[in-house]
Amino acid sequence: MQFEHLVQINDPQLADVRFLSRAQVWFGLVARAYKPEKFILGLVNCTIHNRQQNGETTVLSRSLNYGSFVIHDTIALHEGSHTENNIAANEFCGDSCMTIRIEEPEPQQLWLRFRYEVGSPEHENPESELMQAQMDEARRQAYRAADIDTVKMIRELALSVPEDGQSGLTH
């Protein structure tokens, strides 16, 4: 399944909503990589096993503990641009990828583009096309809701981060 959608960060039509800088949005995406339990409902904790720096890209190898199951992934933080999360195949899906990209079509017009590529599980149960379509739609709705929650958390974090995105978040 492939799914992509946009969430607007700054809307000039909403004067009462605080505009965020690109640096503040980036700070939120970095916080999501290092402390995903603050962003992902049901996530108990995250263990970072390895951190590598390659130029302006940081790559984290992690285990995400949901209590009854654990997911292993890597997340690449492409400085100021986007994150790319590669999830190892598990009982729920095959190898999958989620990308969150900051887009700025006009100055201060910030958007986040969420893109999902979800592989089928290796031992997929034989299901009808209708059932698979319903599952995919439920997954899209869950992703959309989680991504809106991510933006809400980024807004909360931005209240404590200057516009240049600098703060005490330690890697």
Automatic annotation (TrEMBL):
Taxonomic superkingdom = Bacteria
A Pfam family assignment = AtaL
InterPro entries per the record?
AtaL, START-like_dom_sf
Query: Mind telling me what this protein is named?
Result: DUF1857 family protein
Family matches, as SUPFAM superfamilies:
Bet v1-like
